[in-house]
Structures are given as C-alpha cells and as structure tokens.
Amino acid sequence: MSEQYLYPVTPPSSVEVVGEESLYNVNRIFCVGRNYLAHASEMGVAVDKSKQEPFYFLKDPSTLIPSGSAISYPPQTSNYHHEMEFVVAIGKSGFEITEDEADSYIYGYACGLDMTRRDLQLKARETGRPWDLGKNFEESAVISPIVKASDSGIINEGSIELTVNGQTKQSSDLNLLIWSVKEIIVHLSKFYHLQPGDLIFTGTPEGVGPVEAGDQIKGKIQGVNEIELTILR
C-alpha cells in the first residue's frame, strides 16, 4: 500500500548544474556568519580567529530561488539588504572530515545571495534571540547554476563582486575568508553528518546595504558564475 498524505507533497528544492541535465537536489542550507573581517567590522563586531570558532545559521531549502528571479519586497521590514556569497555544494556523505579530505567532498560552486531583513536581524541580535525572522524567510536564498569542481578545479581565491543598478557595492576576494572552505567543511562536519545536497553559503564581504523596490542586483565570482535578482516595484 502506497503512502498517502493529507496535503500535496512539495517537490524538493533543486539547483541547475552547468553541463548536466540532472538537477542538484538540496538537502540543507548552512550559512556562515561573519566570515570576512571587513564585514564583521561594518556590523560592529570584532572577530578573532585565534579565540573564536565559526558559527552558522540555517535557511530552509524552501527559501531557495534561482538567479534571474523577480521578487517582491518582503513583508515586515524597512531595511532589506543584499549579501553576496560564495556557495559550496557538498557531493558526498562525511562526518569528522579532515582538512586533507575536505576538497574531495566538494561537488561544485555557485554564486549566492543571502537576502536579509536587517532590521529584524539586528533586533534579534540585540535581545539575544535567533535570527530566523531576519534570515530564514521566503525567497531569501538566491543561487546561480552550480559549476562542478571537476570542471572548475578547487577554488580558493578570486574576485567576488556585487552591483545594485550598475553601481558596485561589494568587492573583495575569496582569499579573504576568515575561515577557508576547507576549515568550514572540517568544522561543520564535527557537528553534522554532511550529505550530498548540502549547500554552504560561506559568508559575505563588506559593502552590504539596503535595496529598494525596482532595484536590479547583479553579482559575480571569478571562475564560478554570475547571479541576478530583480526587486519588483
């Protein structure tokens, strides 16, 4: 007897893969907080890698939308921010992964936008509450097609940029990540059994800022891809 459900089953979230007909089905979305020194500074927080560990928040896979989407300005915020990110797609299961092994778990890379209701995030931060209302909401995770690591090679450096209406807002390099991709995979796999389909948004560089209805957001990462998002009027 086949299983029956009370409501229609939602199809799994997925991402296109360059050169592949099959889609990358998404399991979880991990996001690394404050992983560029300059961004941490602009958020009023000091990061000392020698004394601190990386920290994470999650976005539900249902928040994921493809590059090129046009979306409405989200509800209950008046300070809606862009955050350009380098995304790592995990390709096999692993737990307590070593640094020497870390690269072998990477399926590919993508450009991502961690769209943020900044006023709600800061309100939660000030009261010591979770960031969910500011980070984990509909259409808040934007992603480009994935470029396979077997095609791109392992990426540890390269420019990461974002423009709003043609004006550069974020410009940095992946080699300025506080915790490298290898270090993130090693650390995260101490707490979770990583699985194929897990995405890691590795953090945003400085220059985050508000967007308004009618804005056109474009980003790119050297050797990876480009990403676009339109905020509808």
TrEMBL record:
Gene Ontology MF annotations: acetylpyruvate hydrolase activity; metal ion binding
InterPro entries, alphabetized: Fumarylacetoacetase-like_C, Fumarylacetoacetase_C_sf
One Pfam short name: FAA_hydrolase
Region forming the signal peptide: none
UniProt entry keywords in alphabetical sequence: Hydrolase, Metal-binding
Domain spans labelled Fumarylacetoacetase-like C-terminal: 29-230
Domain of life: Bacteria
Protein name as it appears in the record: Fumarylacetoacetate (FAA) hydrolase
